[in-house]
Amino acid sequence: MAKQKPNAAELRDWAQGFSLLSDKTRLGILAELSKGPANVTAICKALKLKQPTISTHLGLLRMGRFVNGRREGRSVVYTADKKTLKELQVAVRNLAPK
């Protein structure tokens, strides 16, 4: 069965996703969230980075739908968005030769 060629919108979405993931801090955040939900303080401690840096990168990851946040009291707990990560995984798989 032949692979279906991605349309322009899919290519744009893939490019935006790969661009967001081209930063080591954002990849570190996703790696940390792959272990389970975490708040900014826990992510800062794990990556040894300051809160404004982590918050900036989390904001970008949220805009790209790579992470979700939910308020718990005075803090926000973040999780990796499995659906978006799975879609990007499929995109990579579609690029690989058969």
Write the layout of secondary structure elements.
Elements: H1 8-20, H2 24-33, E1 38-39, H3 40-47, H4 51-63, E2 67-72, E3 75-80, H5 82-95
Antiparallel strand pairs: 1-3, 2-3
Residue stretches low in confidence (pLDDT < 50, at least 5 long) are: none
Listing every helix as H and every strand as E from the N terminus to the C terminus, the arrangement reads HHEHHEEH
For the record, the CATH architecture stands as Orthogonal Bundle
Which CATH class applies here? Mainly Alpha
**Biggest sheet details:** 3 strands, antiparallel
Total domain count: 1
Number of helices: 5
Briefly note the CATH topology name: Arc Repressor Mutant, subunit A
Summing up helix and strand content along with how strands pair, one would put the structural category as: alpha+beta
Q: How far apart, in Å, are the first and last alpha carbons?
A: 10 Å
Radius of gyration: 15 Å
Provide a compact summary of the structure.
The chain has a single domain, classed as Winged helix-like DNA-binding domain superfamily/Winged helix DNA-binding domain (Arc Repressor Mutant, subunit A, Orthogonal Bundle), CATH 1.10.10.10. The chain contains five helices and three strands. The mean pLDDT is 91.
Explain this structure to me?
The termini are close together. The longest helix has 14 residues, at about 80-95. The chain has about 100 residues and is of the alpha+beta class. The chain has helices spanning about 10-20, 25-35, 40-45, 50-65, 80-95; strands at about 40, 65-70, 75-80. The protein has one domain (about 10-95): Winged helix-like DNA-binding domain superfamily/Winged helix DNA-binding domain (Arc Repressor Mutant, subunit A, Orthogonal Bundle). The protein has 5 helices and 3 strands, in the order ααβααββα. It has a 3-stranded antiparallel beta sheet. Helices cover about 60% and strands about 15% of the residues. The mean pLDDT is about 90.
